[in-house]
Amino acid sequence: MDDLGIARALHVIAVVMWIGGVAFVTMVLLPSIRRRGGADGHALFEALESPFARQARVTTLIAGLTGLYMIWRLDIWDRFVEPAYWWMHGMVLIWLLFTMMLFVFEPWFLHAWFRRKAEAAPEATMALIGRLHMVLITLSLIVVFGAVAGAHS
Ligand code: HEM
User: What is the pLDDT of residues 8-44, one digit of tens each?
Assistant: First the structure.
């Protein structure tokens, strides 16, 4: 096993923990909280989701660093001008989206905005959070599909 194999394995572990966590939040946690009902749904969601957000900050960093290392090591920068490598753009796009959410938008204003919105309209806010997560997991899974199929064929 060489450095490239190790970088690839760490990249996949980071992606599994990160995107797997997003799948759990989207398909298990959010629907369960919404089914349970009650005005405190958003507070419960925040309490259960925030340890995952901390973990996701670490796993996005590892995925980004190992991904960049593989690009540098394989010297495959030219893929970014080839439409056939859409999944390379997809990976960077998903990474940027989550990095901005986790490190910038959420701590800066999104957290407080959702809290205020949840106080005024709890059910609608939880539905909106559910829809946003569904968009993120769908895009992430399309990119995972493209990356595995593209890297091995
Ligand atoms: C800055 C962010 C990222 C960079 C620079 C990056 C870069 C890379 C590179 C260079 C490869 C190897 C491609 C090859 O062997 O031809 C790779 C593989 C892969 N990446 Fe990323 N990636 C990033 C983020 C992501 C994200 C967000 C996901 C998931 C949504 C992801 C999922 C994967 C998967 C599943 C593979 C295939 C592993 C395999 O089967 O060998 N990556 N990535």
Answer: 999 999 999 999 999 999 999 999 999 998 889 999 9
Among protein residues, the one with the nearest Cα to ligand 1's atom 22 is 67
Looking at the CA of residue 141, tell me the nearest atom of ligand 1: 30
How many residues are there in the chain?
Answer: 153
Confidence of residue 123 (pLDDT cuts 50, 70, 90): very high
Contact in structure between 88 and 80 (CB atoms under 8 Å): yes
Task: Encode 48-64: b = buried (16+ Cβ within 10 Å), e = exposed.
Answer: ebeebbeebeebbbbbb
What are the domain boundaries of the chain?
Answer: 3-151
Please state, in angstroms and rounded to a whole number, the distance separating the CA atoms of residues 113 and 4: 42
Q: How far is the CA of 145 from the centre of ligand 1 (A)?
A: 11
